[in-house]
Amino acid sequence: MQLIQNWTQENRDNYGxxxxxxxxxxxxxGLFTDEALAEMLDAHPSHLIDFQHLPDNPEYPxxxxxxxxxxxxxxxxxxxxxxxxxxxxxxxxxxxxxPKYKKVLEQLHGELEEHTGKNADRRNCRGGILISSASAAxxxxxxxxxxxxxxxxGHKKAWVYPKTQDFxxxxxxxxxxxxxxxxxxxxxxxxxAFAVIAGADLHGGEMVSWPHRSPHRVENVTFxxxxxxxxxTRRSAFTNAGMFANGVLRRKYGRxxxxxxxxxxxxxxxxxxxxxxxxxxxxxxxxxxxxVRFKLDETVEGFVxxxxxxxxxxx
Length: 315
Ligand SMILES: [Fe+2]
Description:
alpha+beta; globular; Jelly Rolls; 4-stranded antiparallel beta sheet
């Protein structure tokens, strides 16, 4: 069975340059039914599962708060995502760790390579499964890796924006590659008017891909199951290294570099400098403390309750 369907010559010509939606048959693998997902969650190391609650906080609309799910089995986690609660579960690296899923990810990569004629140099191939409730959303962001969103079950809406300075200022992207986790991407709903795709309906069985670094966001309409595949290529690593160097030059040396306006030789030099800086450990090792503020509790409506006193994640 082919996983990618209805691929056209136009898709081949535009892959990596334009936003595109193609059909896929991931659902037919049987790996994304309730039963299979519950079993997959039970088998996955808990440190690779992020279970988050999205509280209704008008002061901080995109807030995601860590939930302690220790003691709950996969079936309960799924029920929580299907309940009236606002829950977002990211099962990290399951597509590259659990053998049944890994086989599917490898097939998907093989087919993509064949269809696009690209990505033969892919590395760090990872894939996570997102299980999220009807009212969940993924806020505006940009990914340093090449990502493809394989939507598998349910109905979502997706927005993808141009990667011009108005939508993705160099300084904001540099923050991402530098690991400045607390930096927010500039976003306002006014930007939707200029999105490349704005609120496009995405149903199970559709895969969306966009040019590297394009900012995007997603809103659920129903309970959803999706798979996000991500990888790097020589080219994406080159851009990230160059912008890493620019980020350091901007922050430590008061420069105002531009990646889009750099000449080819300047890019090569910056990428080499960036790789050296990464090796020397200029990247911030700071990681935000992951504080647990909620506990998964199937006896309450919405399946989560606030803990008396927040504590650091240990599960
Ligand atoms: Fe993303």
